[in-house]
Amino acid sequence: MFGRLARPLTLAVLFSILISGCSRRTPTGMCPVRGTVVVDGQPAQYARVSLTPVDKNDGRNPSGGTVDEDGEFRLTTLKQFDGAEPGEYWVSISWCKPIDPNRSEVEYGPELLPKKYQNPAESGLKELRVTIEEGDNELPPFEISTKK
After folding, report:
1. What CATH fold (topology level) applies to the domain 33-144?
2. How far is the CA of 139 from the CAs of 11, 112, 129, 130, 147, in angstroms?
3. How many angstroms separate the Cα of 80 from the Cα of each of 2, 30, 84, 121, 122?
4. pLDDT digits (tens, 9 = 90+) for 56-83
5. Domain definitions of the chain by residue range
6. What whole-number distance in Å separates Cα of residue 64 and Cα of residue 92?
7. Can you give the three-state secondary structure of the chain, one letter per residue?
8. Which pLDDT belongs to residue 29?
9. Residue 87: Cβ within 10 Å count
C-alpha cells in the first residue's frame, strides 16, 4: 500500500517546494515606524505618507500610512501598523483632504502639496530619504512649508 502512495506523495512535496521557491520573498522582521507631518505649522490630517525602497529590486515592499488629526502616522506594509522592513527608502507625501469625510464613498479634493513631495527620487529632496533600522523607528518630523 505504501509503495502506491509514495510516488504521488513525493510528487506533491516536490511540487510544493518548487512553487514556494518561485514566490516572492515574504517580509520578515517588520519594524514599527511612526512620525509626524505638519504643513505650515499645522497637522496635515489625511495626508498620505509612503515609503518606497531606494533599491526597487531587493524584494522589500513599499509601506504607507495616513496622518491623523494630531499630525501623527504609523506605517503599514502587510497588516495594520506592522511598519516596514529595515533598509533605505524614499518618502513621498501627498495631501488631499476629503470633500465630505462622513460619506461612505469618500471623494477627495485637489492635491495641496507641491509636486516635489510626491516623487522625491526625482526631485532630489535628500530630507525625504530615510533608513529604517531594526526595532522601533521614529522618523524626524516632516515640516513642510507651502509659503514662499
Report:
1. Immunoglobulin-like (2.60.40)
2. 49, 22, 10, 8, 24
3. 46, 12, 11, 26, 29
4. 898 999 999 999 999 999 999 999 999 9
5. 33-144
6. 9
7. CHHHHHHHHHHHHHHHHHHHHHCCCCCCCCECEEEEEEECCEECCCCEEEEEECCCCCCCCCEEEECCCCCEEECECCCCCCCECCEEEEEEEECCCECCCCCCCCCECCCCCCHHHCCHHHHCCHHHEEEECCCCEECCCEEECCCC
8. 83
9. 17
Which grid cell sits at 58?
531587493
Amino acid residing at 9? L
Contact in structure between 119 and 125 (CB atoms under 8 Å): no
For the segment 31-47, what is each residue's pLDDT rounded down to a tens digit? 999 999 999 999 999 99
- At 8-29, the pLDDT tens digits run 544 444 444 444 333 333 446 8
